[in-house]
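Exercise 7. Predict the structure of Aldehyde dehydrogenase (NAD+) from Thalassobaculum litoreum DSM 18839.
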Amino acid sequence: MGVQQNYIGGKWTDGATAKDNVNPSDLKDVIGSYAQADATGVAAAVDAAKAAAHGWNRSTPQQRYDVLEFVGNEIMARREELGRLLSREEGKTLPEGIGEATRAAQIFKFFAGEALRIQGEKLASVRPGVEVEITREPVGIVGIITPWNFPIAIPAWKIAPALAYGNCVVFKPADLVPGCAWALAEILSRAGLPEGVFNLVMGRGSVVGEAILNADALGAISFTGSVETGKHVAATCAGRLAKVQLEMGGKNPFVVLDDADLNVAVNCAVNSAFFSTGQRCTASSRLIVTEGIHDKFVKAMSDRIGTLKVDDALAEGTEIGPVVDENQLKQDMDYLEIGRKEGAKLIGGDRLTLSKDGYYMKPALFTETTNDMRINREEIFGPVASVIRVKDYDEALAVANDTSFGLSSGIATTSLKLASDFKRNAEAGMVMVNLPTAGVDYHVPFGGRKGSSYGPREQGRYAAEFYTTVKTAYIQP
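Solution. The predicted structure, encoded as tokens:
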């Protein structure tokens, strides 16, 4: 088995070391060996991007459209193959993996169109005979650091707009999931990009990530990951006045009111809390339920958890795959013990032994919890949710907003009045009514408030706010 190399300056290059990529559904299955870059490799990638920046910054919209459309078309044509790779290395079920690959294709195709729609303004000056033009220009070179839970979609929604607006890219994927990142880089290597415009440097965050953060030539850093690391990214970028975009954690509430359709509420809660093994920053881990429906909701959730099939991500009929790795599984199990010690009652949460050795656990639901418990304050990032009983809508809204996070917030209700009030008053960047909190479209802005996000929004036309800078020009003909 050969080592899959880094891609720097238009060439495939060895790393300082290499690391095996192991399937969390089957620990005997080694997907491949992937190069690990060091600071020298990052420096080479930055130099390559610097050399390419002037030419790519001045490329035509048609050039950028052609590249992004090529990538989008190939991902779409190979979505089943890439979805299988994704599920194999990250642990999402195969339908989820194929769905994520499809979304990545759609993102590239969307930004192919955006490359043709970069707009400016022309205004009259207050001075006679003077014209004013306002244009958007690339920020230059963008460092992109992505997490393991969406190994092709999140790289897509960062790389595609960066290229669409004329920036060069130095890309570091999560160390746990290099396979999808390498496959995406291989497609980009054949898309017609000039050498150095796109660079892939795989490896550990403490080495590769740090080198990217401290590279003076990088005018902007887009990061998705933990709050703790995000704060470090922000501080480092501020120290050298680089532009920064952070997407971090969530402790998302899903409110269930007495008037809710019980089936809708349960389906939304199960999807939000447990699908993708709960490893989504938009997952609902706090289920805030009013008194009148509380007992029926808990029983229905308990019954549903008992029927969910946990198995190999690639197996037909699997609803929940494995946790991504041993460290994440330990963290999940540690939080189950924390919840029990806090007095919460636990349904499910068993460590599962299946025919293949993998990181499997049964979805866990805590009941009889309060919002001040650690399990309701800290992001667990696994198939673990808590039910919080409240008196009425007003208390539900207050509890929903009582968190240091503010990414996604949901409600199940048949009341238009209360749904409208919740949309207005939920302190979150995204609000869902009678829908799971963990489902967003690719053509609209994504992001949150408080400790969940910092900087301009991602995706959709709002991506231009981060990947471009505004120039105002005055002309006297």
